Known about the structure:
By secondary structure, the chain is an alpha/beta fold. It folds into two domains: 11-156, no CATH class; 160-341, Trna Endonuclease, Chain: A, domain 1 (3-Layer(aba) Sandwich), CATH 3.40.1350.10. It is built from 15 helices and seven strands. The chain has helices at 11-53, 62-75, 83-96, 101-108, 112-121, 125-138, 142-150, 153-159, 166-169, 172-181, 199-208, 210-217, 264-279, 299-306, 324-341, and strands spanning 163-164, 185-187, 221-232, 235-245, 250-256, 289-294, 313-319. Strand 5 (250-256), helix 13 and strand 6 form a beta-alpha-beta unit.
Amino acid sequence: MKKQFQIVIEKEDYKNLLNSAVAEIKNARFKIARQLSKSVNSVYWNLGKLLYERKLEEGYGKGVVKQLSFDLKSEFPDMGLSPRNLWDMKRFYERYHNSNEKLRQAVAVLPWGHNLLLLNKIQNDAEVEFYANEVIIKGWSRDMLLNAIKMNSYSQSRKKLKSNNFKKTLPAHHSDYANEVFKSSYNLGFLGLTEPSKEQELEKRLIAKIKEFILELGKGFCFIGNQYKLELNGKEYFVDLLFFHRGLRSLVAIELKIGSFKPEYVGKINFYLSLLDRTEKSENENPSIGIILCADKDHLEVEIALQDVNKPIGVAEYQLLLPKDELQTIVLKELKASENNE
């Protein structure tokens, strides 16, 4: 009789195993969905091309397209081949057939509903490419895409300066890459925050939706932990969120702040980076990088606060996809409540 062995695994190790398995399955589903969208869009593109090449217009070509829709639906009843959809396919082809290949590749993998939204809302090629890439990288739903367009995220991403000292504190090739990896602003709309939230609540929600947060951060980030404990001379210190970036080969410490940037935040994260480099960084890894994530920042104030700091630190804003005045009200209420509790 064969002996049976029971493998014992720590609760935290199992939790990491489960999270990794879930992430793999979700990643596979996302790839399948993208491939399906690409196949559907390819059919729609070619149908639109047929209508375009036969110079059918919604006036005199209306009867032809109506009959075509009827005959196609009898053959393919589940494909959504209504007259309106056929005209949209023609618009889809007309809009992008002369565009650059990079843009065509981006819209090719979007769900059809996302493409219709971009067709109706955005005319500029560069702007369409920006939103299409955001959907691809971050897995935005159609509602999130609409909200981002209303918030004019494209213009905001172009206007905002990156606030960091990477060029001064990192080797040239490393600082250039770090500037590509880290953004000036992060969209936390997936948290669904509509009420005032303390930093602990913001952190809690980010941990609960860590996959979405990693998608927002970008490729290459591996989550290590939250409230990550560091020790020095018997004292304990806690980093809000700790990541490792595979491309940069650096630990990345993120400190969350519910209000506007304050210069004193720099000293705290600079200290954490020194501890990380001393106690956590491996010999083959690059210096740890710190990011202060806050509701608002003044670029000049950040620049002055970082001018004499020798650790690589960046300051970024987060957006909650709420109207600006509503977000400001929430932040001000939270700050006032915090002051009253002190």
